[in-house]
Design brief:
The chain has 189 residues and is mainly α. Helices cover 61% and strands 0% of the residues. It folds into two domains: 8-97, no CATH class; 98-155. Helix 3 (28-38) packs antiparallel against helix 4, helix 3 packs across helix 6 (83-95) and helix 7 (99-119) runs antiparallel to helix 8. It is flat, with a radius of gyration of 26 Å. It starts with 9 loop residues before the first helix and ends with a helix.
Length: 189
């Protein structure tokens, strides 16, 4: 995950969050919800979006009414209609944007919709025709999905490593050279 979701407040584990105004405008709880739902590496990533949002709301303990339904404020967070949350979601999605992963997620969401349609009882004639048409296309869709996953898996992970720069004596001041000689003398004494 991009940000660490430990037991401490997010800002303590992830001080870089302060550089995003939209994140500063959200509560710790709202940010945890956003990260659990929208991070590509979230532990909830394989769930369909509606289940993912439900599970994230429970995990971060968004307030509920006495009858167990989400409170009005919590519902606006889950639905993304709260302006602060909406802006933070937008910024987070831009921050982690990856075209292949977005395409993979879009295909998975489409497949989830197909599954829901397949499972639906009492389909109308139109839904039945659509369902049959999808079943005929599903092998091709699944092959496209596998091809995308192969690209994702084969991509190298790049990391930025600091190279140690060689310094010649010409780059050093007289004081630096003296201090280095002193350090060397201490090693041998």
């Amino acid at each position: 995950m991009i940000f660490k979701l430990g037991k401490k407040p997010l800002i303590e584990d992830n001080p870089e969050l302060i550089s995003f105004d939209s994140f500063n405008n959200c509560s710790d709880q709202e940010l945890r919800f956003i990260f659990l739902v929208y991070d590509y590496e979230s532990p909830l990533r394989k769930l369909p979006m509606d289940r993912k949002k439900d599970k994230a709301a429970d995990t971060v303990k968004l307030p509920r009414t006495k009858n167990g339904a989400l409170s009005k404020t919590s519902k606006s967070v889950v639905e993304g209609t709260n302006p602060r949350v909406k802006e933070a979601i937008k910024d987070f999605m831009e921050l982690q944007y990856d075209r292949e992963k977005d395409l993979s997620i879009a295909i998975d969401e489409q497949i989830d919709e197909f599954i829901s349609l397949f499972k639906k009882k009492g389909k109308t004639d139109t839904e039945l025709k659509i369902s049959v048409g999808i079943m005929k296309q599903l092998p091709s869709i699944m092959k496209d999905r596998q091809d995308i996953y192969k690209v994702l898996i084969s991509r190298p992970e790049y990391s930025v490593e600091e190279e140690e720069e060689e310094i010649s004596e010409d780059d050093l001041s007289t004081l630096d050279i003296f201090n280095m000689e002193e350090d060397d003398n201490e090693l041998y004494n």
